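To whoever is on call:

I kicked off a structure prediction for a single chain this morning and the downstream step that reads the tokens threw a length-mismatch warning. I double-checked the sequence; it's 378 residues and nothing unusual in it as far as I can see. Pasting both halves so you can look.
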Amino acid sequence: MPGILKIALKLLINDRSKFTALLVGITFAVFLMVMMTSMFSGILTRSSSSVYNIGAKIWVMDPAVNNATSSIPMPDYVLSAARSIKGVRYAVPLYFGTAQVKLKDGSYQAATVVGLDDATLYGRPELLEGNINDIYAENAFIVVKDAEYDKLGKPAVGSEFEINDHRGAVVGLAKVASSGLFGIPTIYTTYSRAITYIPSTRFTTSYILIEPGSESDIPVIQQQIGKLGYQALTRDQFVGKISDFYTFKTGMGMNILLMTTISFVVGLSISGQTFYTFILENLEKFGALKAIGAKSNELIAMILFQASFTSLIGYGLGVGAASTFMILARLRMPDYAAQITFVILGFALLMVLVIASVSSYIGVRKVLQIQPFDIFRG
């Protein structure tokens, strides 16, 4: 069998034009599949950035909320009721909103404002510069230093800006686990300052963050919050709800799925047609091998080896090209959202194996129909 596979490899590599066409088709298909799915994965991660950055175990919200940025304010009694539930270690309010920030040059920039509980500052980011206690100073804000930081004019500690005709002073620079999705910078302040500076409805609590006493208390807490007419979700459940919204209730999921399907069909058609042409041009060689005693299973092994060899090399080249493109894109565009995960790599590998299987099936059918006397009759 190793000798047969060596012959198969030589037949494949010696026909450089067909071998190159096969590699190009599969590489291009893998590149598109990895790029599309990585972009979608990055978008979903960015859409849940607030959930990851705050890090609360349980989020209480209005049932109509479908993503972190479209919060629906809740009355104050929900917070009091949440604190009285057995199994709740503590519960704090969180303000989440958007405001126009006037910069020193007179331009305006929209910013996401996160108001942390005054007493605990639960969900505060990790500071790069400044002291967290300075957030209690007059007009104090903490600016997140991420990909959107430049849009605020790269403010340093001590710089000032205006927010809704109120003075704002930068007392710290922070880093977070993930940047936002829509290219809007983020600033943190206290809950009381956020609801004072930013116009809001009668109710001001965007979310209630709960720390349960233990994991076993979570179902009870969720049940009790449900009786109040509100929803309590764990971090993973909230992330899943946000992902479902962007996947199924916006055009994003369908568009990504369509592009991934197109890339798969392109790779399948190019590789299948090229491999079939390769088999046709080498029928005489396969017939000669069959005439000198090669068995059908050995010919099938040759074709499977050729298809698998080409597909795996194309897979590696496609993943490498996609990774290189993402690295270069991030150097030029810091807020580029695409990310490669093991799930994406596994999905792309599965699709490549399907392409190899279909291509092999086309070749196997043709080779098994060869009769040696047809080859030598000419």
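Update from on-call: the warning came from a stale cache, not from the record. Cleared it. Sanity check on the structure: The two ends are 29 Å apart (CA to CA).
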